[in-house]
Write a structure and sequence with these properties.
There is one protein chain. This protein is mostly helical. The protein has one domain. 83% of the residues lie in helices and 0% in strands. Helix 5 packs antiparallel against helix 10. The chain is globular.
Amino acid sequence: MDLTVLLILTIGVFIGFYVQTVIGFAGSLVALPILLLGMQLQDAIAYISIFYLFSSAFLITKEWKNIDKKIILKLAITSVIGVILGIALLTFSKPIILKKGLGVFILLYVAYALYGKKKIKLTKGGVISFGVIAGFFSGLFSTGGPLYVICIENSVKDIKALRATMIGVLGLVTLTRVPALAVSGILKFSHLEMTLLVFPVFLFAQFLGKRTFIKINEAAFKKLLMALLCISGFILMV
């Protein structure tokens, strides 16, 4: 067992899924750059996908009553198509190119979050298109969350319902992604063994994130998150 990889996985999972539990998405955007310090992109995606499965199961049971099921049904088919396309590209593309692409994606998201003056308004066709694109990035980098936010914001205004519906959509995507990764050969039994060692840390991140969500200063937390994402984006690009 590589202790360095175990330490990096522990840190990445804790920070990423703490953020994921607090705001309902962005766990992969935070965790991936950390994991890539000690492992290949395909391995990082495999680990994140396993923990997303656990996280989704935990959070969906807690937030079921607040989830907008109509939106999830609307995004289901397009998301599955996008996930399959993303995993196909992940399987056959060069990791260094994908890492730089991830860095660009993160920086574009930060720029939109900080400087976007207007929320994007989507038609029915636009929601379908964004569903495919979000599924694609979910399959490729496990980072479709920001695009799903754009889709869901068009229909859901209440912050609790928005967070809960994001959790539900990402749960659906994860149920598609994990079997697809296994079939493609990216997800291996060795990933499951390492996951068991880090699982107590993952549970603590969920607990702490839930406590933080109750008391959170949302504006300050988002500023800190944007700063961390910006740094990670630049690191991946260079």
